[in-house]
Amino acid sequence: MLANLSAMMAHGFKSSKQDFTFGPWQVTAAKTHIMKSKDIERLAEEMNMPSLPEMLFGDNVLRIQHSDGYGIEFNAIDALRRVNNLQDSVKVACAQEWQESRADSEHSKEVVKRYDWTYTTDYKGTMIGDDLQIRVTETLQRINMEKLKAREQIMFFDDVLLFEDELHDHGVSMISVKIRVMPTSFFLLLRFFLRVDGVMIRINDTRLYHEATSLQAGQNFMLREFSTRESNISELQNVPAALYTDPNEIAQHLTLKLTECEKLEFPLADPQSGATKAQ
To answer: What sign does the dihedral 29-34-38-42 (CA atoms) show?
Structure first.
């Protein structure tokens, strides 16, 4: 519970909303209270899941929207819709190992259920826009991470927690999103972090980058990179255990399992119909 309180402090539990405009773009970062239990129960029933994360910030959002209406946002509800609500899939073995390692735990008999109790999600954001929407295509182009290391003025920064669960004090499952805006670009990191104590660590990262030659003109697309890194604890014997709780430190020690690169192309003047969808 202390970890929960510290997370609230770190991610600004006090309600706040920030808007930042640069060129044709507006970034909105909204942070508010945890969803009420009755609302969580109703949402769990709607999603056909036995339970949802104990700290669920259903109204928290980070949104990047163009003046023409299109854009992308990141919210907890859509992130949870990407959780497998039918089975553990490849995670069954880990769940059984976790259960065996916690044989004396009162909760251990409840762990292996027909849904992903770790709340692992491959959520990459939700496209927004009524008449105009961003088009997603595969690409070989990569985000220039070296360029991002260059010293540049940070005009805006925020970090928004979407959900967190301590897996009954035997680990953590959480997803948060942060953004920084520089004079000629912006960079966003959506990170899902899972640690099941004594069993495994997993990180799903979504990076989003847009570069502009000026505030008014620039590339007509964003680059989005999704990656999955995962290792069993038995594979991390040479890594100090103190790093297990720090996603930024442990990430470089995990095995890269998947990388997907996409180009998010901005719509042309012709309106394109279509409902908002999560990618």
So the answer is: positive
DSSP annotation string for 115-136: S-TT-------EEE-SS--PEE
Cα dihedral 211, 217, 220, 221 in deg (nearest 10): 20
Classify burial at 96, counting beta carbons within 10 Å of its beta carbon; exposed 0-12, middle 13-18, buried 19 or more.
Answer: middle
Give the chain's length.
279
Q: Work out whether strand 200-211 and strand 126-128 pair parallel, antiparallel, or are unpaired.
A: unpaired
> Which residues lie closer than 8 Å to 228 by C-beta, 6 or more apart?
122, 202, 203, 204, 256, 257, 258
Helix (H, G, I), strand (E, B) or coil at 22: strand
Q: Which of 62, 278, 76 is nearest to 180 (CA)?
A: 62
Place of tokens 């991002």: 148
Residue 191 CA to residue 195 CA, distance in Å, equals 13
**Cα separation, 66 vs 177, whole angstroms:** 19
More confident site: 173 or 100? 173
Residue 256 has pLDDT above 90, yes or no: yes
Confidence of residue 32 (pLDDT cuts 50, 70, 90): very high
Reply yes or no on whether the pLDDT at 81 is more than 80. yes
Q: How far apart are CA 98 and CA 91, in angstroms?
A: 11
pTM of the model: 0.84
